[in-house]
Predict the structure.
Amino acid sequence: MLGEYPIRGRRAAEISASVEEAVAKGDLQPGQLLPPMRELARRLGVNPNTVAAAYRILRERGVIETDGRRGSRVRAAPATTGREYIRVEVPEGVRDVAAGNPDPALLPPLAAAFAAAAAHSDRQPVLYDEAAVEPELERIARADLDADGVPGGPVAVTSGSLDATERVLAAHLKPGDTVAVEDPGWGSLLDLVPALGLRTLPVGVDDDGPLPDGVRAALAAGARALIVTDRAQNPTGAAVSATRARALRSVLRQHPETLLIEDDHGYRIVDLPLHPLAGTTRHWAMVRSVAKAYGPDLRLAVLTGDPVTVDRVRGRQRLGPGWVSRITQRAVVRLWTDGAVDARAVAAAYGRRRDALVDALADRGITAHGRSGMNVWIPVPDETGAVARLLHAGWAVAPGARFRIGAPPGIRITVSGLTEAETGALAEAVAAAVAVAPGAVRGYA
């Protein structure tokens, strides 16, 4: 033990493990300063380079952050503490509107598609050193991207949106770099960025997407990457409008070296048009997952981008998993070509449920947001109290803390399985739980 610092070890790996253990136990608190490297080296009797290596390991693991002369400190929200753990346990008899899942009734059956894909594999097995992307999947995906105005570029396939985002970030950034992220935004992404040893810089969001002034300030402050959700933003339902897209492109043109990542996980469940930002900067990526429309367990997303970015992703992928199963890719092709999902009907179903809840809340003086997708975001003055009161009333909602960095409190409700008969009762329960005067809560940016 080292005085007030519970740090020990002689090698970099031992020192970093000691710090991580102390953070996990609570002996080192979030925000607590660590000793200067030379001071710690003297106390431990090791070379300062050893401590520097240990601190580098901790930064890369997202445990600490270093701010120049201000020194190194434990992250305010260590990457080892996932936002997924900020959730409400749903007791028996409580209606769960927190999970964020698509409506199973709107997902297609998979048996026939996988049977056909497996039969194709029996006739023509995929062996090592073959193409990582199913040619027909690439053709269909590229045609859809072209139709939506996404610039031309090679196609890769990853194990979902988050896998694609991680690979693109790793392809261009190094630990300590800053990434501008939406706030509120996707909780898993807000965990991923610091887990990669990167810094998050929050950018406010309204119904039309990231605020241009916020993006401008983040890039001027040194953010090297920007991640934007084009449609069905989680948790707010925001969708980038044509006007907002023009404003954001104007900002990005002033920072052409910014790594731009666009997440279009609302693909085939949203009826609003896509307004891509891709191609405005030198390096960019567009990610489209099939999870929401065809099933989360498929674990498949299509990635396109500039040739350098996609080549780096493919190269690193070859050294790890190699490729995403071609059987799964062929099954997805079958689902696409057979019209297993009526995208317009699915988008309309989610739209009716969102609009019904937003309107019912408005009738009770509560402002809510849900322009697209399957979630509704409700700003509240007391997040913890609202979640607890709703749980007592029989409704489990998602705490806004899972999705926020500096944005005001809120709760997220997933409407995917919400029935018409339930909407009024839920709105009534939210109004009682929030207990504010009409119009008291007005925005979330």
In short: Residues 203 and 323 are 34 Å apart (CA to CA).
